[in-house]
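TICKET #2291
ISSUE: user wants both folds in one file
ATTACHMENT 1:
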Amino acid sequence: MSVWRNLSEHTVYENRWLKVNLADVELPDGRHLDHYVLRQRPVALATAVVEGQVLLLWRHRFITDSWGWELAAGVVEDGESLEAAAAREMLEETGWRPGPLRHLLTVEPSNGLADGKHHVFWSDQAEYVGHPEDDFESERREWVPLSSVPDLVAKGEVRSANAVAGLLLLHQLHAS
């Protein structure tokens, strides 16, 4: 079996959201290499699918200078459950409170570099509470036909890996 072994690592940089560590990795043939590793807090995402429409955010990402549809998302706070974090993020970023949430999937968006896990939840209910507290997170929030998801993904209008995976799975579940 070809297994890379992490023999040790130390922190090079740290803040509230992540750590950058340098690992001493032993390759299967015995060679060693230095490998940078991002240690990240878990991320929770949430959306709702109601009457064939899915709640999305249209936003700009300055790092890649790109626009796209995304799901409400954020880091899980200390002591907070994944589900509670997902519900909080959806309310803060969209102004919609989800009904009971169901776990859809967990993805590791960059597991060759980072240990971050993104936990995607969804609900078949949502209640509009008011204008989103974190309206700076997106240019707009819209209910988009779930049937349009494959086309949006193909056109590059859904760019983040966690949203692509979650939305395509939701589309598949609702198509059957």
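ATTACHMENT 2:
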Amino acid sequence: MKSSAPPQTYRVKSFGCQMNVYDGERMAELLAQRGITPAPEGEEADLVVLNTCHIREKAAEKVYSDIGRLVKAGREAGKEPLIAVAGCVAQAEGEEIMARAPAVSMVVGPQAYHRLPEMLDRAVKGERSTDTDMPPIAKFDSLPARRKSAPSAFLTVQEGCDKFCTYCVVPYTRGAEISRPFRDLVAEADKLVAAGAREITLLGQNVNAWSGEDDKGRTVGLGGLIRRLAGIDGLARIRYTTSHPADMNEDLIAAHGEVDKLMPYLHLPVQSGNDRVLKAMNRSHTAESYLRLLDRFRAARPDIALSGDFIVGFPGETDAEFADTLKLVDAVGYAQAYSFKYSPRPGTPAATMDGQIAPQVMDERLQRLQAALNRDQHAFNQASVGKRCAVLVERTGKLPGQWLGKSPWLQSVWFEGDAALGDLVEVELVEAGPNSLAGRLLASVPA
């Protein structure tokens, strides 16, 4: 590659999970520290970072399509952008990306993106580089301080996964489970609140696997961390995602009933309602043990909203086994949920299993599952009408004077009135749709 002028503008495009959103924000902060500014809307950037996700089907091919579009748009604009590919696709297919896409200057994995500025220096000189090393959590010590935050912010507390579900690439792209130190998380949370965050969502591939030593040297789990963060003045709300049933403990369950700032919402993936399928997936729970776990959370916090993940069409899944998933959905009554068709990931055990399901069968099952999940989500929203609750104002609406925010149960709520970004306001929920609710502004909630 030929040398080029140092980039003046950047754009980070993040795909996939909330952890990728967090990583994208941190890469943007690294670039801003270099004096590079976000590209104005509608203008091509000098540097584009594609922060990729490997969970979705044909993720790698979509990366190459994005690269092609960037090259074409750059030529039409009279500039050749520097392109970096980051994230899980970069980790899984780094050398392949370099071979197939000459326009890419940098490939950096999710544990190495703190070295992006050094790679950029080489790219400006015309050198291409790949960094997919996976040192344990080293990147966090190299990231800049948090200086500006949205009202709702993400904080990665744990990375990696040791569960090795047979359909999943995360253990290969994010590495083994590792927890960030307690003191570092408290310090970053303090900085986020000082920078404007009113709500913090704690992130991890298995966030409830987090553990560390608290201020007094005691070993604590996620519940202990939540209790400490709840003491931060100005922090109004705490959430966490994504959890694994195997890592739940009594202290975290109890925190839902004891910590006012911990929101009444739990995302706990189950994936299937059939025990044989769960065993084939290498999930450590059964349908019954999962339901008993939810009962414990409801006992601690009766108004808790439940969310989950589902995969339909896992290899070998029969019609009767899929029907068990529908029975589980009926038993839980999810407020929200995410559902996907199984798609094979190279290198995972499920990709070579017998009994791969025909696409049309998966399509039909997914439609039936989503119909049930949408029914329950709408019912949960309908049951919320008439409630008064606090809403955190996160952005403006489409119409003048309209605001959008989240209820304690993570429902999208819109309302009109005198408010500002970051306000916590009391709203009466007056009308429910399938995906959001209308509210009537009552008053501001005291800080």
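RESOLUTION: both attachments delivered.
EXTRA DETAIL ON ATTACHMENT 2: The first strand starts at residue 9 and ends at 14.
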